[in-house]
Amino acid sequence: MTLQDIIRRLESYWAQAGCAILPAHDLPIGAATFHPETFLRAIGPEPWRCAFAQPCRRPTDGRYGENPNRLQRYYQFQVVLKPSPDDIQEQYLQSLVDLGISLEQNEVRFVEDDWESPTLGAWGLGWEVQLNGMEISQFTYFQQAGGLECRPTLGEITYGLERMAMILQDVDNVFDLSWCEGLSYRDLFHENEVQHSAYNFDQADTDELMRQFDALERECDRLIEAELPLPAYEQLVFCSHVFNLLDARHAISVTERQQYILCIRRRAQQVAERHYASREALGFPLAAT
Amino acid sequence: MSASEPVLFELGTEELPARSIDALKDALGEALATGFRNAGLNFGAPIETFASVRRLAVRIPDVPAATVAGTEQRKGPQVSAAFDSSGEPTQALLGFARSCQADEAQLARWRAGEDCLKTEKGEWVTFEHTIEPCACVELLPEICKAAVADLALEKRMRWGVGEASFLRPVRWVVLLYGEQEVPGEILGVPSGRTTRGHRQLGAAQCELPSAEAYEECLRETGHVWVAGRIEEVRRQIDQLPLNGAEVQCSETRLMIGCASAEYPVVLCGEIEAEDMNLPPEVIRTVLEEQQGYFPTAASDGALSAQFVMVANQPDPEGAIAAGAARVVRARLRDAAFYLERDRQRRLDEWVADLARVTYHRKLGTLLERVSRLESLVAQVAELLDVEPDLARRAARLCKADLGTDLVQSFPSLQGIAGARYAREGGEEEAVCCAIREHYLPRRADDDLPNSAAGSALALADRLDMLAGVFCVQDVPTGARDPLGVRRAAYGVLRLLVERDLDLDLKPLVAAAVAGQPAALHRAEAADETLQYLSDRMRGYCVEQGQDKDTIEAVLAICSSRPLEALQRMRAIMQMKGRPQMTPLSETHKRIRNILREAEEVSGDVQQDGLIEESEQVLARCLKESENQIQEDCAQGRFEAALEQLLELAAPVAEFFDQVLVMAEEEQIRHNRLRLLRQVHEVFLRVADFSRLQI
């Protein structure tokens, strides 16, 4: 099954389960959790169901395209179910069956893995899901987002698409994956890994990035003041990416790290509060039905 | 129905953290037992507890169908507060009467002074409460609810739209009294007799016929082992064809491995021959820490290619074992890739890269820290009989592996990777060893360095960190301790005490502070660092079984030599039971008080100014024992020194009996005060006994 087929299969499975299938977020983000359709939807009482494939960037994970398992940009398939349904685990397991994975012959395990995003002021409890020992998904019951209690609880399922595809295609090197007939992951993304690793580790101008960080932070503050939490959140998401770039350049010490994280978190909380207020002002339109 | 039946309570959940299951089932058992007792429900022994990764269960044997009827005495307000001056019942009494549903006749009896409880502490009105017998099935839901609510959980979570919270979502509840289904609701889930089997192997729904049949029914139709998994796994391990190799797993790892499988099946995976060339510590890290598998090793300790895992279902097609081997291979290939890249440079070539890594915003880069360590460790090394150049070399290299790909990807290999690269680069064995050992102890219960060079570097590493944070006043507060300052201080104490290193921290801390960037020097930093260490010393000594007052008595005079301080405490603890110790402590307190209140007197005792015999005797005894005590202390013979002090008790007591210290005549008074100060000083050579509470 090609990677493209996997995405399509998951989209159709979760569409049938009542999810809106949405496009990926159009800014660099470290995980699908940062997508406003995850993070901001976790806030407030409105129910929400969506799914989307999302490219994610983790600058520190780049290996110049030389490592068979590591990428600085990879793909997640994200499913967001709020409130988390009682049979959410069964629905997830069925999605694996739908991808052709036999649960009699393969072992699926839910291994404790609590999730926390210090920058987003968000945390949840859940598992990493292992298929025959390989982590293929993250499963989280959101408890807090932006410092606000998640009521109702949002269930987040994040499939690691490359990992799943490597198992389904029986491939040991991520670059050998077939994206679609006649096109490999190498054809599509290898050069991107090489060049971006060079940028992330060697070329990124740390002074300029620090300036950007400060500018984004100021812009975020201004937009929070202007009661525009959605654009404020965009600044914040970008801020977080700049922070990750600085981190990849080893430009941040252990103690400074804490400062940067607190800086982003404080704003994430303000954005979350403003966003809640703006939904409330609209009468929580999705809650009525 | 017979007179008593077993109760079964099962809490069905989504997958619980495997490491918590055993402790949780025990806690649930205890909480239920307490609930039964408080409700007046008797039960037989023993309580049985069961668990799997998706359930916690308790069976309580021989529970009667109802509580026994009886009476209970309730205590109300004090009699003095029950009636006011005009003899009218107070609000306190009326409130109590209402809560007891007491009638007028009862009020009259209280007024007449009846139904009172008299004790030494006072007199209270009481009420005899009749306890109606209550049916067990009526009480059960509340008892279970309270027991679950009382469980101490590391974390709690909510799910769906509910407000109920637990460690993971609760999906079903079973509550049976014998064969009887007990209706109730726990954490928003109605109870019944339906449990759930293994996700793949068992029946999705299993009807439990009775509390007795619980584990058998789950085994037969549910394919779930709710007990005996460890024994089963051990049995399966024993049957593995391992060609003489032994499975290596600690009790904890075995327990966690077994807890995560409802239907444990021991499987074997194989590491490919090519990957077996990797350093064994890398293979172990991947198997144990990353995957939760068990390595196997030949009798000589060498790792074998096979590893063992506990799966949650049979592996008919071999896909599970193959998958596990594949993950291990991928991780090991990852490691091999890093090793190969790392080996393109010698370890010392990585040192320069540390200039790009910030250690602390104010304390500079890791390279600057390494330079500080090089000079500090040389001083420590001399005290530990380690060749300073060797220690300096180890310090130079000890952080170099932090930049390597292997450590970046396997952080727990820091030091271990460095030692290996150093060895491959031809460094001296003692240097390699010190690089690995300087991170020890990593946790409170971790091993200590074995080599002297390792100890020296471990000490220098921690002292530099402590001095640094005190110079920049970035001392941990609350739970925030990113550098691990508390752990570092604790490590220093353990190193000195448990490695028998009788060092004075004062000069070492001074050196560590002096080594910090000049712009950061603060006059108070050294004292603050020492104070911090001495504060940690209190906690450490308590753990070592010392009494709090003994700790204070010693730290008052000896706070910068941890090993010696502990030896002094042990000596005092040895003697504490002796009858003479109480007067010794009281005498010291008395002397202290007198000296505190009297005028300052300088100079030595003038022998010819001692007029009474008792003062002359005391001065003589003091003179005789002083040198001996000094000698004993210098030699670390603190018990002997204490014996000497006890000898002084009699002449001091005699002195206090016979003479008046605060004599009218100034010369005599001053001389007596001098004598007492001398006694005080001799006492202080061993400890400040005035701080003992005996």
Secondary-structure map:
The complex is a heterodimer of chains A (289) and B (694).
Chain A: H1 3-16, E1 20-21, H2 36-39, E2 48-57, E3 73-82, H3 88-98, E4 108-112, E5 115-117, E6 122-131, E7 134-145, E8 148-160, H4 161-168, E9 178-180, E10 183-184, H5 185-203, H6 206-225, H7 229-248, H8 254-281
Parallel strand pairs in A: 1-2
Antiparallel strand pairs in A: 2-3, 3-8, 4-6, 5-6, 6-7, 7-8, 9-10
Chain B: E1 4-13, H1 21-38, E2 48-52, E3 55-64, E4 70-78, H2 91-100, H3 104-111, E5 116-119, E6 122-131, H4 136-150, E7 170-177, E8 180-181, E9 185-186, E10 189-192, E11 194-195, E12 206-207, H5 214-222, H6 229-238, E13 246-247, H7 251-259, E14 265-270, H8 280-290, E15 294-297, E16 303-311, H9 319-342, H10 347-351, E17 358-360, E18 364-365, H11 366-383, H12 388-397, H13 405-409, H14 416-424, H15 429-437, H16 452-471, H17 485-498, H18 505-514, H19 525-543, H20 548-555, H21 562-575, H22 581-597, H23 613-634, H24 638-658, H25 666-684
Parallel strand pairs in B: 7-10
Antiparallel strand pairs in B: 1-3, 1-7, 2-3, 4-6, 5-6, 7-8, 9-10, 11-12, 13-15, 14-16, 15-16, 17-18
Low-confidence stretches of chain B: none
Summarize the amount of helix of chain B as a percent range: 40-55%
Separation of termini of chain B? 61 Å
**Helical content class of chain A:** 40-55%
For the termini of chain A, the CA-CA separation is 38 Å
Order of helices and strands of chain A: HEHEEHEEEEEHEEHHHH
Shape of chain A: globular
Task: Explain what you see.
The complex is a heterodimer of chains A (289) and B (694). With 289 residues, chain A is an alpha+beta fold. Chain A is built from eight helices and ten strands. The model of chain A has no long low-confidence stretch (mean pLDDT 95). Chain B contains 25 helices and 18 strands. In chain B, strands 1, 2, 3, 7, 8, 9 and 10 form a seven-stranded mixed beta sheet that branches. Chain B has a four-stranded antiparallel beta sheet with strand order 13-15-16-14. A three-stranded antiparallel beta sheet of chain B has the order 4-6-5, with helices on one face. The longest helix of chain B is centred in the middle third of the chain and has 24 residues, at 319-342. Chains A and B meet through strand 4, strand 6, strand 7, strand 8 and helix 8 of A and helix 9 and strand 17 of B.
